[in-house]
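2.7 Reproducibility. Because tokenized structures are sensitive to small changes in the input, we list the exact sequence used for ApeI dehydratase-like domain-containing protein, including any N-terminal residues retained from the expression construct. No trimming or masking was applied before prediction.
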Amino acid sequence: MSAQVLRSTLCVAPTHACLAGHFPGRPLVPAVLLLDALAGLLETRGQRMLGLSEAKFLAPLLPGEHAALEIVAIDAAQWRFHIIRADTLIACGRVRVAPA
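Resulting structure tokens (single pass, no recycling of outputs):
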């Protein structure tokens, strides 16, 4: 299998409904929204995310900040992901996938 690379950008608007109760006064983008963006990017290639093999959330993403999402196929059943804001690694890990 030749290496497949998918890239996207993400930015959660400061008005997103989930932020109202997520650390009031200093909201952070919840990890579940980052994982939802990851799942959505995989779906564009006909892959369904089954679960996380490994995930590290290393820095917060604030509402309105832009981040790059990159995923690289390891094999037919796993992809490695990185979410990066400027020069800061926000999250990384591996996901298990299956055809949608």
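The beta strands are 5-11, 47-57, 66-75, 78-85, 88-99.
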